[in-house]
Amino acid sequence: MAPSSKEVLSELQETAQELLSRLKSHHLFQSEWDIAAFVVFLTFTGTVLVLTLLVLLYCCCCNSSSPPKRRPKGVDNLALEP
């Protein structure tokens, strides 16, 4: 059964009050696991941003308008020439 809108609203208010009280007390993290999870989240977000920046730099700054030159593979068999 789905929770009613009043229950959801009260849960949101409780969560907001808890967050505000943590901000006021300057104790955002209650345990070592909270700190570790936050570090993992920041590392993941930073990695995604750096990779996105690298892709944008590669797409915008590399002027490769001509297609790459291909070298012929194998050996020419001159005996088959007429």
Count of distinct strands: 0
| Continuous helix count | 2
Mean pLDDT: 84
Q: Indicate the radius of gyration in whole angstroms.
A: 29 Å
Order of helices and strands: HH
> Structural class, from secondary structure content?
mainly alpha
Strand content: under 5%
- Taking the alpha carbons of the first and last residues, their distance comes to 84 Å
Helix content: 55-70%
Q: For the report, how would you describe the main beta sheet?
A: none
Q: What is the overall silhouette?
A: elongated
Low-confidence stretches: none
Secondary structure elements and pairings:
Blueprint lengths: L4 H21 L6 H30 L21
Write a structural description:
With 82 residues, this protein is mainly alpha-helical. The chain is 62% helix and 0% strand. It contains 2 helices and no strands. The protein has helices at 5-25, 32-61. The N and C termini lie far apart (84 Å). The model has no long low-confidence stretch (mean pLDDT 84).
Summarize the structure.
This protein is mainly alpha-helical and 82 residues long. It has helices at residues 5-25, 32-61. It has a domain at 31-59.
From the structure above, extract its key features.
2 helices, mainly alpha, elongated, 82 residues
